[in-house]
């Protein structure tokens, strides 16, 4: 049976393609992709789609992708019904709370506003610290929010720390580590267990 795999565009795309290549999948089409959206493996009965992180989870949820390769940041933001089976150990970064140096949100009473692309993660984290904050959803370049004064701090992912540094923000707290994970649609795992295990074993041998 054929399997389909949703891959995340952007930040982790190159590293994931490298792992697929090392694991001996036929990813020539993915390497020369142009504007195509669906790619056939040239060695195995596998189709790949390249989509935005959130969409990989949606496709797995609806069973049109059997497998997705996606960051833990996206999975933490939308805890849904799939199996998370493997940590690829790449795309490593952290969820952090950051702000301008003079703002001390943890020792300040009063109304605190936090900007983030990740409202669920943000709410949960501040709830766990017993703080009731207002969360403002921002789609990108979240570092701008405290600079423009729309929020007191941000919750975002930090990889090298360069974006924070270049915009004069500092880390106030680390929330958790993030890396790239493999998730599987629950029914696919039963119906296509041979094909899915074959895929996972090839990847496992390569990342060991
Ligand atoms: C992410 C994140 C930070 C930056 C962190 O944004 O939101 O802005 O990367 O990386 P660094 O610590 O290595 O500087 P991304 O590039 O994915 O784009 P976005 O801000 O438009 O979401």
Short description:
With 208 residues, the protein is an alpha/beta fold.
What can you tell me about this protein's structure?
This protein is of the alpha/beta class and 208 residues long. The protein has 2 domains: 3-92 and 179-205, 3-Layer(aba) Sandwich (D-Maltodextrin-Binding Protein, domain 2), CATH 3.40.190; 93-177, Periplasmic binding protein-like II (D-Maltodextrin-Binding Protein, domain 2). 34% of the residues lie in helices and 29% in strands. The chain has 9 helices and 11 strands. The chain has helices spanning 13-22, 28-31, 53-61, 72-77, 119-128, 144-148, 162-166, 186-191, 193-207; strands spanning 3-8, 38-40, 46-51, 67-71, 83-87, 93-99, 113-116, 134-137, 153-158, 170-178, 180-184. It has a 6-stranded mixed β-sheet, sandwiched between helices. A 5-stranded mixed β-sheet has the order 8-7-9-6-10. The longest helix has 15 residues, at 193-207. It is elongated. The model has no long low-confidence stretch (mean pLDDT 95). Bound molecules: 1-O-pyrophosphono-5-O-phosphono-alpha-D-ribofuranose. 1-O-pyrophosphono-5-O-phosphono-alpha-D-ribofuranose binds at residues 11, 140-143, 156-163.
């Amino acid at each position: 049976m054929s399997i389909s795999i949703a891959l995340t565009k952007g930040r982790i795309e190159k590293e994931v393609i490298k792992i697929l290549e090392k694991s001996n999948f036929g990813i020539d089409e993915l390497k020369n992709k142009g504007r195509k959206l669906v790619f056939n493996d040239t060695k195995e009965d596998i189709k790949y789609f390249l989509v935005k992180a959130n969409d990989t989870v949606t496709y797995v949820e609806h069973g049109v992708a059997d497998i997705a390769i996606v960051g833990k940041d996206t999975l933490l933001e939308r805890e849904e019904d799939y199996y998370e089976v493997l940590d690829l150990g790449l795309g490593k970064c952290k969820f952090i709370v950051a702000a301008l140096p003079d703002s001390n949100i943890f020792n300040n009473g009063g109304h605190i506003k936090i900007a983030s692309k990740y409202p669920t993660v943000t709410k949960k984290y501040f709830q766990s610290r017993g703080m009731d904050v207002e969360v403002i959803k921002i789609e990108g370049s979240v570092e701008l929010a405290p600079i423009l004064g729309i929020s007191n701090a941000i919750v975002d992912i930090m990889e090298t720390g360069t974006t924070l540094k270049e915009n004069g923000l500092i880390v106030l707290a680390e929330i958790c580590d993030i890396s790239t994970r493999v998730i599987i649609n629950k029914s696919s795992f039963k119906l296509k267990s041979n094909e899915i295990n074959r895929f996972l074993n090839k990847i496992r041998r390569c990342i060991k």
